[in-house]
Structure formats: C-alpha cells, structure tokens
Amino acid sequence: MIIGIPxxxxxxxxxxxxxxxxxxxxxxxxxxxxxxxGAGVGSGFTDEDYLxxxxxxxxxxxxxxxxxxxxxxxxxxxxxxxKLIKKGQIVFTYFHFASSEPLTRAMIESxxxxxxxxxxxxxxxxxxLLTPMSEVAGRMAIQQGAKYLExxxxxxGVLLGGVPGVPPGRVLVLxxxxxxxxxxxxxxxxxAHVTVLDVNMKRLRYVNDVMPPHVVTExxxxxxxxxxxxxxxxxxxxVLIKGAKAPKLITRDMLKSMTPGTVIVDVAxxxxxxxxxxxxxxxxxxxxxxxxxxxxxxANMPGAVPYTSTLALTNVTLPYVLSLxxxxxxxxxxxxxxxxxxxxxxxxxxxxxxxxxxxxxxxGVTV
Length: 367
Known about the structure:
Its EC number is 1.4.1.1. By secondary structure, the chain is an alpha/beta fold.
C-alpha cells in the first residue's frame, strides 16, 4: 500500500503522524511511504531521518494526498485539506467529528474512509489510541493550570504546592478517566489538595486505592459541582463520552460563584467541552477570561510537547497502520473488532452511531 504522512497544518501543531521507526516497519514490509518535506521537524525528525528508513520525501501536501492510498495524520483535516482527500482514500487520524459539523459534512462529501483514533475500542472497552494523548493532556493540564494561576496572567495568584505555614492550592478534577487520573497524579505530586468527581463508583474506588490521602473523591452531581467550584483554584475538565459531545457540567451561571482568578482547563474541548463557556483556543492564544475566570481550552494540548507525543502515538497506532496496509481496510476491520469501531464515515455514509445522535442525518457539502 502507498501511505502518506503529510505535515500537520493546524495552528501550532508540531506532531507528525509517524516516527522514522514506524516508517521503517512499513518499508520493511514492502509498503511505499511518502512523507511531506519538513513534516517531522517539529517533533525532532529530519527529512534525512525518513530517507534513511526508506521513505520518499515530497515537497507539497497536495502531492502526498494525491499519491497515497492511506493518509496517516495526527489531527483532523482542516478546511485547506478537504479538497485534497480522494474518494476511497483511507484517512486514519483523530477526527472528533462530534465537535464539528462542517468537518463531518466535508468528510461525507469526500467519499473517503474515515477511521478515527479516538473511537478504536479494545475488548476491555478502553480506547488504546486515545489513551496516550489523554495521559499527556492530563499531565499538561496541571502544568498549564499552575502557570495560569499566576497573577501576571490574571490568575488567582496561588502556588499549587503551597509553602510551610500556607495551605496548598485546591484542584478539582471532573472525571476519573485517563485525563483525570493523570491530572490528579500530577497535582498530588505538587502537593495540592485534589478532589476528583465521577459518576462511576468503580473509578472512584480505584482513585481511592492508588492515590495519596490528600486526593479525595466524591460522586459527581450538580450539587457537588456547585459546592466545590466555589473553593477550588484550578478546575480540570476531563469528561469523555466516546465519540459524542461532552456533557456541560459547568454552566455559564456557575462562573459567578467562583473566586476571581480561578482557572479552568477544559481538556474535553476536543469533544465540545464540558464547560458551557468553553471554546477551542490555540497554543498561540491559549486563554480567555469570562466573569474573571481564566479559561484554557487548547484543543491540541499534546502538540506543545511533540517529541514525547509523537513517540507515544506511534507506539499505539503502528500495529493498526500495519494491519490496514497489509489487508486493506475492509478485511482489517472485519477481522479486528477494535479497528472496526474506529470506522466513522465510509464512502459518504456515517456509520458511527454517536455522530448520528449528535447531528442527525447529514448530507455532504461542496468543498
């Protein structure tokens, strides 16, 4: 199969869809790999690194799309890429369709085979291709939240770890999934007091078992959320409903009850956000303020640490890329129930139920 690795063109996205190590595995099996010139530079990989493992370097993104049977990316195609995607072409990437109707319509119109990393689901009902980026984003949420709590950037002026004689900062984590666990771990490591909310008692019991005593758990409901947002300095939104929009757990009216300078890091913004006032931001312009509450809503947080993120992503995507390349998408998906769940749009038809539930019946648009 001919596989294309284009350069990511989303704002401040420095990751790349495949490391040279991953490309080597593909070329060893006889597949052709086209890499756009400069695609790996942001992650620390040169064109020469790719040439050494058998890839061919193409100058433009149009050439990569035009010559490839399968495109392996990191982020969803943006408007400039819509017209480059061909009928029947496999596009394997993070799509997060539920957060963007225009993207969904464009991919329907393209007649491509859209396989989304974030909905590939294994036998244990975990999301193996989403997990490493959720781990990165959860850890980064505390890094970024701690920074934006500083007064020069309009935060409350709280040091999460505190100092002797001064109590530590308080972190509220919404969701005890991968993002929430990693955020709680990092916050606890800094010495902050951490409260984790979730509706899944098994997850809360797990948090209780593995976290230190200054990480406490409570059942998630509106009453408890309204209670805790008044007293916590940093709020991390880590809620995920697979393939669907995130629920709005913090509404606009709740902001007025928060202490001025409170920071919200809405990691769920990729799926529409779990805060009503959230809107996607970029690493270039990461925050905005509403009712004196600082919102950090960068939709590609792991893109800020591309070397780590690209290695972590290729580790988990490569087996699926190899399967698709060896067998073609139909056979690969029919033999692997996990990969089959990654199918979102096939030849103009939405085949993933949560997308239909979000938007209803959709027709394509001219792109």
